[in-house]
Amino acid sequence: MAISALVRRSALEPAWTLYSGARLLPGARELERTQHLSWPELHATQMRRLATLLEFVNRRNPFYQQRFKEAGIEPQSVRSLEDFRRIPILTKGEVRTLGRGLLSTGFNVSELQQAKTGGSTGKPIEVFFTEEVSQLRNASGRRNKRQTGWKPGEPVGAVWGNPIEPTSLRERLRRWVLDPTISLDTMSITPDAVREFGRQWRRVKPTLLFGHAHSVFVLATVVDELGVTDIRPRGIIASSMMLLPHERSVIERVFGVKVTDIYGCEEVGLIAGECERHEGLHVNVDQLIVEVLREDGSPSAPGEAGLVVVTDLLNTAMPFIRYRMEDYAEASATPCSCGRGAPTLRRIVGRTADFLKRIDGSRVAGISLIENTLTRIPGIEQMQIVQDALNHLVVRIVPGPEFSAKRRDELRSYFASTFDGATIELEDVKGIAQEANGKYRFSICQVPD
After folding, report:
1. Where in the chain is the domain with CATH 3.40.50.12780?
2. Under a CB-based contact definition with an 8 Å cutoff, are residues 254 and 224 in contact?
3. Where are the alpha helices (DSSP H) in 37-125?
4. pLDDT tens digit string along 368-412?
5. What's the CA gap between 17 and 5, in Å, rounded?
6. How many CB atoms lie within 10 A of CB 26?
7. pTM for the full predicted model
8. What are the tens digits of pLDDT across the range 8-52?
9. Which fold has domain 358-445?
C-alpha cells in the first residue's frame, strides 16, 4: 500500500510522536523558527545554553571538574567567548585515552546510544549520547534537507558505504511509514547496481539524493555512461568530504540540480550546511559553538584558514567542550543573502591529515593540490596523493584518454616545483580505493608531526 508524503507528515508522524514521545518533530519545528532569528538573538541563546552546560559538567563530570580546576576557571565566570577560550582545547588523542572516562555521572551506559568514529587511525572513538540528543541532531539534519526542496515524508535515495538497513520489524515498519529510503552501497557501484537503484527510484520516487560526496560523483559518472534517466532528485546533499570543482559540475550536469554541501561528524552531529543560496555553510548555532582558530588559539580572520573547534551544547552525557576537529575551515566575511541569522563558513579546507608537508616545514592543503591539477591538466580522471616521507610523494593517477606524456610531465613538474627537493613518483592505477567506511581520501600524509 502506497503512503503519500502528505499523509506521513500531517498524520502519521504526529501520531508516532505522541506514541513514542520522540523529540524530532517538536525539535524540528523549533529549528524552523529559530533559523530566521537575528545573530544577536541566536548568540544570546548560545551563551545561555553554554552556561547551563558548564554548570552541569562542573557538578557531574569528573574530567571537566579537574580541567576547570587546573585552568583556574569558575564556570559561572564565563560570560563571553573571550572567557570561554580560557578553557583548554580537547583533542582527539585525549578522547581516545579517556574513553568512557569522559562520561558524566548519573548516566547508565547501557541506556545511551553509541557511535564510533575515527577508525582510520587504528583506534576508533566511542561516543555516547541520549535518545533525546539523537532526535535533536536528526532535527537539525531535517532542517538542512528542507532547504534543498525536500519535504518531510518524501522518500530519500541514500548513497552510502555499508548502509545500515533496519533489522527488527519495528525498525522496518518505522522506515516504511515515516522515512522511506532506498540505498546504494558505495562499496559496490557497479552498472547492475546502478540500474537496480534506478528501478527502485522509479518505483519509490525519492526527491532527495543524499550521500558521501565522492560517491555521489561516482554514481553520476556511471549514470551518465549508462544513460539512466530515472534518477532525477529535487535536491542533492553531499556529505563527509569536500567535492572537487569538476566533480560538482559533473553531478549538477547529470542530475540537473545544484549540490548542497553539509559538514558534520559522529561526535557532535551536523556542524554546518548550505542553504538554497549556496553562499556558504550556515553554522548550526542552535546546538553548537563553532570556533575557527589559528594555531596560537586566536580567532582566524574571515577568509583565513583555521582549525575547527566545536562545543556540543546538547550532549551532557559525554560532553565535547572545545573539541579540536582536526579540520580546517574559513569563516565568511559577509552574511548569506538568504537573511538567516547564523554565521557561515565559506568553505571546509580539509583535515589536518590531508595537509602535506614541505621540507622547509611549511604545509600545503591537499585539496588545493588536487584542484590545481585535476582542473588544469586534461586527462586525469581521478588522483590520490600519498606522502610517505618528507622527501617522497606518490601520486596515483587514473588516466583518461587525453592523458599524454606531455600531461604527465606537466603533472610531475607541478609537484616538483611545489615540493622542492622531494622525489615525485607517478603511479597509474585503475581506480582510487575506498576506505572501509566507503569514503575516499585524495590526500594522505603519513609523515608524523
Report:
1. 5-351
2. yes
3. 39-60, 62-71, 81-84, 92-98
4. 787 778 767 888 888 889 999 999 999 999 898 889 999 999 999
5. 16
6. 13
7. 0.82
8. 877 877 787 776 777 788 888 999 999 999 999 999 999 999 999
9. GMP Synthetase; Chain A, domain 3 (3.30.300)
